[in-house]
Amino acid sequence: MDGEGRRQREEAAALELRWTAGGEKRERNNV
């Protein structure tokens, strides 16, 4: 259980980083 939750959190963190990096550029283009 602990291991699975930890993996999920790591995946979410990686997704968040990707979103932030790509989202910022996208937002700037939209504005």
Automatic annotation (TrEMBL):
Top-level lineage group: Eukaryota
Listed Basic and acidic residues bias regions: 1-12
Region (Disordered) residue spans: 1-31
Listed name of the protein: Uncharacterized protein
Source species of the chain: Trifolium medium
Lineage: Eukaryota, Viridiplantae, Streptophyta, Embryophyta, Tracheophyta
